[in-house]
């Protein structure tokens, strides 16, 4: 059973994540220490700052910096090099973008996310598995909400936590019902924002599933975590509070490609 159905996250001191409507992805190339690392840090920083500025100038409310290029990912404890590299990049993005900045340390190192945010001033982190157990391509991943919230309280008390419900590239083991999983993630796990995605990167979220989550957890912002396009964004924003978009903004609709300025403009126009 839910522990508490309180006020929306906007009412939590210092956490204005409910106001974030358009959240763009800054997918980093492979960072130093990862299996496919090739690009120098200076170039990674320039690329990330450029993309964040483009998104901010186009009208996005926030960006999430993510170590997307580090696949294959560590399950829940990334190397020190990853934390160091992401901290440097996020710090540059926070200073340059003038919008809210989040961090997602793949696959599921929420503790590293808290540390990065504490050091850089990032406003929120994304945690793929905050509550429950999921079978993934990295093996079984178990949520560590108690540990994560304690770290936040000590290091970054105003940091918001956006957590996935039935995260993509995974199968739920502990709670297959998405509405119940949403309640547990919000009220037992302590998530400030819930994210609903499709089955994989770039895959659309099921609108009925989004409706079930929104009904089950009416006092938390709901973000769509994948598959949103200029054609579908209005439908999602009728139900959800915000959308996270990456693939649809890239050249050729390819996740690893550069931003396409035309696609970015068209997306913002459709959403606004």
Write the layout of secondary structure elements.
Elements: E1 22-27, H1 41-58, E2 62-66, H2 80-97, E3 100-104, H3 110-120, E4 124-127, E5 133-136, E6 139-142, H4 145-155, E7 160-165, E8 170-172, H5 178-188, E9 193-196, H6 207-216, E10 222-224, H7 233-237, E11 242-245, H8 261-271
Parallel strand pairs: 1-2, 1-11, 2-3, 3-4, 4-7, 7-9, 9-10, 10-11
Antiparallel strand pairs: 5-6, 5-8
Helix pairs in contact: 1-2, 2-3, 3-4, 5-6
Walk me through what this model shows:
Helices cover 35% and strands 18% of the residues. The chain is built from 8 helices and 11 strands. The protein has helices at residues 41-58, 80-97, 110-120, 145-155, 178-188, 207-216, 233-237, 261-271, and strands spanning 22-27, 62-66, 100-104, 124-127, 133-136, 139-142, 160-165, 170-172, 193-196, 222-224, 242-245. It has an 8-stranded parallel barrel, surrounded by 5 helices. The chain has a 3-stranded antiparallel β-sheet with strand order 6-5-8, with no helix packed on it.
């Amino acid at each position: 059973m839910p522990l508490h159905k309180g006020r929306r996250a906007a009412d939590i001191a210092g956490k204005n994540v409910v106001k974030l409507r358009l959240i763009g992805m800054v997918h980093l190339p492979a960072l130093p220490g990862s299996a496919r690392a090739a690009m120098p840090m200076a170039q990674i920083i320039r690329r990330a700052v450029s993309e964040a500025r483009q998104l901010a100038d186009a009208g996005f409310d926030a960006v999430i910096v993510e170590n997307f290029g580090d696949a294959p990912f560590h399950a829940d404890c990334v190397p020190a090099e990853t934390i160091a590299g992401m901290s440097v990049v996020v710090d540059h993005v926070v200073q340059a973008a003038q919008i809210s900045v989040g961090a997602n340390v793949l696959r599921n190192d929420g503790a590293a996310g808290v540390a990065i945010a504490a050091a850089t001033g990032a406003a929120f982190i994304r945690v793929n598995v905050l509550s429950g157990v999921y079978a993934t391509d990295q093996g079984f991943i178990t949520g560590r909400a108690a540990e994560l919230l304690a770290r936040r309280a000590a290091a970054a008390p105003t940091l918001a936590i956006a957590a996935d419900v039935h995260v993509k590239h995974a199968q739920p083991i502990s709670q297959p019902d998405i509405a119940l999983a949403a309640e547990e993630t919000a009220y037992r796990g302590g998530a400030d924002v819930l994210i609903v995605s499709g089955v994989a990167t770039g895959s659309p979220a099921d609108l009925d599933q989004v409706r079930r989550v929104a009904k089950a957890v009416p006092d938390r912002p709901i973000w769509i975590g994948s598959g949103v396009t200029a054609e579908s964004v209005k439908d999602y924003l009728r139900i959800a509070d915000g959308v996270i978009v990456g693939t649809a903004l890239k050249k050729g609709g390819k996740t690893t490609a550069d931003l396409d300025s035309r696609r970015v403009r068209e997306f913002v126009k459709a959403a606004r």
